[in-house]
Amino acid sequence: MSVRRALSLWGAAVLYPLIIVTYSVSLTTQLALWGYKLHRIFCANRPIVNHACGETLHTTVPPTGTVFTTVSVPLFTVLYSYVRILVVCKRSNSEVRRKAVQTCVPHLVTFVVYCCSVFVEMAISQFNRGQINPVVAAIISLEYLMVPSINNPLIYGLKLPQFVLQL
């Protein structure tokens, strides 16, 4: 990979979240709120928008598209790159294949679990407070905070079984 391509990918990875967060927060700060109690474990932008008085269409439409792009673009990019790595390593000797699988599988598992947690959290944020039970929203918020955090040490601390490495 060239330096120019690496820098452009790095720039996209930094600029996209910066633009989305800045845009969403700037729209949210203009809203008048009718309540200050969030049925969540932590504060997020979408539940604040759900507490707004009046028209929130301009703050609803852009985040709906970002739910898809925030999760799917990085997920498919990472999956594609790891598949390419594993295809190249498949042509190599068994030691290279074993090391590639031993490195890639934990990364893929933790990243997919994280992406699923982010997707669930972002999808549940799209509901209004009357559409979902507050206990369910709190449990899902806990899942978003705890499952990836617990998953990382477990996955990286375990040795992969031999039958997985024989791929």
From TrEMBL:
Sorted UniProt keywords: Membrane, Transducer, Transmembrane, Transmembrane helix
Q: Which GO terms describe its cellular component?
A: membrane
This protein's membrane topology, according to the annotation, is: Multi-pass membrane protein
UniProt protein name = G-protein coupled receptors family 1 profile domain-containing protein
Principal localisation = membrane
What organism is listed for this UniProt entry? Knipowitschia caucasica (Caucasian dwarf goby)
Q: What molecular functions are annotated in GO for this chain?
A: odorant binding; olfactory receptor activity
The keyword Ubl conjugation belongs to this UniProt entry's keyword annotation: no
Q: List, alphabetically, the InterPro entries matched.
A: GPCR1_Superfamily_Member, GPCR_Rhodpsn_7TM, Olfact_rcpt
List each copy of the G-protein coupled receptors family 1 profile domain by range.
1-156
Q: Where in the cell is it found?
A: Membrane
Q: Which GO terms describe its biological process?
A: G protein-coupled receptor signaling pathway
Q: Which Gene3D superfamilies match?
A: Rhodopsin 7-helix transmembrane proteins
Q: Where are the transmembrane segments?
A: 7-26, 65-83
Q: Which superkingdom, per the lineage? A: Eukaryota
